[in-house]
Amino acid sequence: MNEAWPEVAAWLEGQADRVIETSCAEVYLAGERAWKIKRPVDLGYLDFSTLERRGWAIRRELELNRRFCGDIYRSVRRVTREADGRLSLDGAGETVEWLLEMRRFDPGAVLARHPEAMDDALAEEVGRLIGRLHIDAPQAAETDLGAYGYTVDSNVEPLRGACPPLDAPMVERIIEATRAGRSALTPLLGQRRRDGFFRQCHGDLHLGNLLLENGQPVPFDCLEFSEVLARMDIAYDVAFPLMDLVMRGRPDAASRLLNAWLDEAARRFPPSLWDGLAALPQFLCVRACVRAHVSAAQGDAAGAQAYLAAAETFLTPLPVKLTAIGGRSGTGKSWRAARLAAETPPGALVLRTDLVRKRLWNAQPSQRLPTAAYVPAEDEKVHAEIFAIAERVLKAGWPVILDAVFLDPERRAQAEAVAARCGVAFEGVWLEAPPEVLRARIAARTGDASDADLAVLERQLARDAGPVTWRVQSLQSTG
Question: What is the per-residue pLDDT across 384-439, written as a single tens digit (0 to 9) for each?
Fold first, then answer.
């Protein structure tokens, strides 16, 4: 241990009104400032055992986190020993420790403290935020599998040697399954790397590193200590909050986040974005394994075993099925689709024509489109897009839900044909409600991705949907 470190820690503690300790850092809260220092530890996957290494990590933390929350991360400071032996901040003497100056924020505002705050709107905002961060992130020049490939191996010894011990047979099954999964995924991930999906990501996006300030999500404390562990497929990055939400009993929020992330990322990434869903079960498993051995190291035996059990569950293939939900505007298709998607954590893919149309027009979900976006040729493009994506995702082994009006019998037949081509089960659901109920719902809508107004609804009501062979569900009230 560096001889000055305990002295520096005591000096900072004497100025602070609160101290937050982690396995590799300490944060001293003083007024509106927070001072962060790295602990002089070598944990294998990170090494802060020397002053030089800690200085590098502090500078790296400032540089990387400014991409996510520049107003929180302010500057790198030096603790110096002056000629009279006293410690000083940025003095003329020898540097004995490195500090990261940050803006203080309320630790109670971190989403890990209250996952119940992740309502539908916030989950979607977090998903879109992560999508935008991935679009803007520097592309990584890795020639291997980056953080995912490294972590499959680095998980082995901590899992086997966890204290308190983990279920040994389960550990061995997971080690074997993740190694086999990595081999199987190598061609896919190699192609995704060539397609631009390997990026310099946040790397540590669990709910403990997501802050809610002024109603907006703010990611902080990205992974800074390893070049390898910060470079990854973007789907491996988003797997962390998905896993975390599922483990915290919020599969509904996980599903909303996943679908919003995909919709946002699809605005800039190539169509092979959707292929990444084939890797997501392995990514979720590996993320849960990390939390398992970290929890064990922290003495949380029950939590560690729960994460390990979840890791194995994530490897269970999801039931691959195509569900199509149709009905006139106001029947509750999107509400039904979102809740159905959450029944298969971390969420089936929901392809909603309203959102796909906005994306094709490069418009925000709540932005109203011109009438030109709704001519027959545009409808054809939108439906061709959802059917093409659905086919790609089903072949990747992921369930899909189509959310569209489907008034045209030909459109319903096209949906059924997608399932037939992919060799998966199909279920069609047709929602109905009295016209007065639909009118009341449309009139009350605010902030929805649908542009359907009362005039659109009246045109739909005037159309005959033809013989409906899908399962019909009727709604009789405005509730």
Answer: 999 999 999 999 999 999 999 999 999 999 999 999 999 999 999 999 999 999 99
Nearest to 12 by CA among 40, 41, 45, 34: 34
Domain residues for 55? 5-104
In the block, tokens 């994506």 appear at 389
| Spatial separation of the C-alpha atoms in residues 454 and 452, rounded to whole Å | 7
The reply to whether 30 and 86 lie within a common domain is yes
418/396 same-domain check = yes
Q: Which amino acid is at 451?
A: D
Q: Are residues 250 and 332 in the same domain?
A: no
The contacts of residue 100 (CB under 8 Å, 6+ apart) are 35, 36, 37, 58, 61, 62, 73, 75, 76, 77
- Buried b / exposed e along 86-106 (16+ C-beta atoms within 10 A): ebeeeeebeebbbbbbbebbe
282 and 255 co-located in one domain: yes
Domain end marker among 104, 136, 168: 104
| Sequence-ordered alpha helix ranges (H) in 298-332 | 301-314
pTM: 0.94
Instruction: Kindly report the number of other CB atoms within 10 A of residue 385's CB atom.
Output: 18
Tracing tokens 């398992």 back to the chain, one arrives at 292
Can you give the C-alpha Rg of the chain in angstroms? 25
How far is residue 202's CA from residue 24's CA, in Å, rounded to a whole number? 18
